[in-house]
Each structure stands twice: as structure tokens, then as C-alpha cells.
Amino acid sequence: MAQNQISCFWNEPDIGGEYRSAVSLHSHTNHSKESLRFILEFTQKRPLLRWALERQSRRSTIPVDWVRAYWTPPLIPRLAFEVERNQIEKVLALAALVSLTDHDSISAPTLLRVVEETSQIPLALEWSVPFEGAVFHLGVHNLPSNRAQAIVADLGAYTRHQSAVQLSELLAMLHQCPEVLLIFNHPLWDLSGMGRRRHAQVLGRFLQGNVRFLHAFELNATRSRSENKGVIELAGLWRRLLISGGDRHGCEPSGALNLTHAESFSEFVHEIRVEQRSHVLFMPQYAEPLGIRTTQAVLDVIRDYPGYSPGCRRWDDRVFHPNQSAAGEQPISALWKAPPAFIERIFSVMRVVENATVRRALGQILRDEVSLELPSDSAYEALS
After folding, report:
1. How many helices (H) and strands (E) in the chain?
2. pLDDT at residue 46 above 60?
3. What is the DSSP string of 23-34?
4. What span, in angstroms and rounded, lies between the C-alpha atoms of 331 and 154?
5. Is pLDDT above 60 for 379?
């Protein structure tokens, strides 16, 4: 029988005492390329912001390609690992198992493996899966070392030139590796903006053909409680385990972890895939309103990091745009001597959130009261 359990640290601060380790899944480093498309989509739904963006675009001498431009999170792999490990060790007093999952890349864990302290980190990535106009994200954890590069190349080839037959074959191949953990990240997030009804239809067809290869559905710490409640219902419908996902892009550690009796990541995979047991723990930061946390993550992204190597210190060193005169891309810091004044004004307004009094006041206004309890009949035989 599948055994799902969900706890909130603010209600059960001593819950970790029953376990050996905690697992941080799904967090990003500066090796992750993050699309700027969301800015365009966000403003299209808000006339005033759309007008302001179009006005600034007309005044700019550089046409902005919102689809091909991207930004990278601020933390290098070592710091990203330490943020996750430190929370687990200091707050929960447990051993830390950390899996970093950049978009379509295993560069970060590959680099960390050459250092003795982090040599056991699993090879993992967040795989972008186009499907009937939608894009789903799958967490692929603990790839076999001797095949990892070849597998990542095959996954990338599908992302660029997808076919439904090939997708099922790739998922079956991953499922057949007993040490690999395959997670459906934020399954209800309509990343392509196709609309709730259309997204639900495509999601249903994707699951109908491929759910047997997926080991768990993610409760994501950067998505709303109402969306995560929907994921709980979806997992029950498809008889799948629930699992945590921090989805950290800034400097705040993951807002959701998994508690486990495992001492290694491979043992944790066995606990999920074979024993069918998962205990998700929401950390204190998830109790804070999502809008405040999202703004804080953006502030982490746009912050200067003087200790970094040249070319990575300023936010405009970490945002990239297609090169106008040659192939490839370049940091937007190469396009100006200093960021435009209107951008700095926007950032100044956002920084108000870092004032403790303002943050407390907004927390009272924006509090989310949606419960994340499991239904009483949440135990079930997992579909094979």
C-alpha cells in the first residue's frame, strides 16, 4: 500500500526526531537557464504593465527577444548545496541528502562530484518535456554514472525534436533503472499558458500514456497551497505517491523536504519506489505568503554578489540575450554602462519587501488559509 504523509514544521517542530535523514529535491544553481518568457506572459494579462513594457521597448535601441533571453539563478553549485544541507542539519538535526536539478543539465552535480565532501551527490536534472503544446517538467534523479551523459543527450534530443513514441520509450528506459527516481514536478502548473481546461485535457492524455513510469507527484514549495491541494487530489486519482520539491531559485532553502529512514540517496529511492512510503515536511518558510517569498527570490536574483568571480557579480551579468551581431548570446551587462534608470526604480520598489515591518504587514494581508491535509482514504495500491 502507498503510504503518504504530510507534516508542517510549524505544527510539529520535533517531527524530524523519528528519522535519520531529510532529502532536498528540486533546486537550481547558476547552471540552470531560466526563460524570461514569463515577463511577457505576465504583462499581457495586465494592461497597465503591458503598456509600460511596450513603451520602454519602443524607447530601447535593442529589441528584446523575451523567448530566447534567459537568466541564471545566483548560487553556484557549492553554495546551492550548502544552503540545502545547512537547513537540514541545523534546523532538523538530520543527515542531509541533496539533489540539485538544473534545467536539462547535470553540470552542477558533475562538478560537485570531483570534491570529496560532495562526491556522493546524485546526478540529476529537471527535464523539459514538450507534449501536445504543453511543457511538463520531470525530476530525473540518481542517474547511473556510467550512462548519465548519454541519457542526458537522449533526453535533450527529445526536448528539441519530440515524438510521442520516443517519449514513452525514454520514460520506460528511466523506469527500468532501479536506482533512478522519476518525479512529475508541479504537474498542475500550466507552463505554456494554454488555459486551465486545455492544460487539464493534455495532462490527462500524458498521464494516461505514461503514469506507469512516474514514481511520485511533487508538492512544490514555490506553488500555491490551492495548487498543491489539487496535486494531492491528482495523486489520489492516479494512485501515485506524493513527494517534496523545493524548486529553489534564490537563496532561501527549500520550503519542502522529505523525511526518510534512508542513509543514502539510493536507499531513499528504494523507499519511494519499492516500499512506497513518503513523508513530506513543509518548512517554516512555506507558511509565509507566496507573493512575499517570490518577491524575495527575485531580490536574491538581482542582488550583487561581490565575492563572486568577475562576470557573475551583478544581476545583469547573469541575464543573457541573443547576440545581435553573432551566434550565441551575451550578458546584457555588455549592452550598457549601467542598467536603465526605470529598471532600478522598479527594483527599489521591490526592495521595500525586505523591511521587516512591511513584510509582517503584508503577511497578515496575504495569508493563505488553504489546508494541505490528506483525504481520509489516501492509502491505496500504486498503479504498476
Report:
1. 12, 14
2. no
3. EE-SB--TT--E
4. 29
5. no
- Give me the chain's average pLDDT, please: 87
Whole-number Å distance between alpha carbons of 133 and 313: 37
Return the closest-CA partner of residue 230 out of 203, 258, 257.
203
CA distance 27 to 205: 28
Query: Which residue type does 289 have?
Result: P
- Residues with Cβ within 8 Å of 205's Cβ and at least 6 positions away in sequence, in order, are 132
Place of cell 482514504: 377
Q: What gap in Å lies between CA 201 and CA 290, rounded to an integer?
A: 27
Tell me which H or E stretch contains 138. Answer: strand 134-141
Q: Is the pTM of this model over 0.85?
A: yes
Domain ranges of the chain: 3-32+72-289, 34-71+291-365
Which three three-digit cell numbers place residue 181?
527516481
In whole angstroms, give the CA distance from residue 133 to residue 121. 34
Give the Å distances, CA to CA, from 58 to 8, 55, 82, 266: 48, 5, 43, 53
Give the list of residues 6+ apart from residue 221 with CB closer than 8 angstroms, or none: 244, 245, 246, 247, 248, 254, 255, 256, 282, 283, 285, 286
pLDDT at 232 over 80: yes
Q: Given this model, what pLDDT does residue 331 score?
A: 86
**Pick the residue with more confidence: 121 or 306?**
121
Q: How many residues does the chain have?
A: 384
Q: Which one, of 297, 266, 249, lies nearest residue 102 by Cα?
A: 249
Contacts 24+ apart (CB under 8 A), 199-208: 199/134, 202/131, 202/132, 202/133, 202/134, 203/134, 203/136, 205/132, 206/131, 206/132, 206/134, 206/136, 207/238
Superfamily of domain 3-32+72-289: Metal-dependent hydrolases (3.20.20.140)
Q: For 213, which DSSP code?
A: G
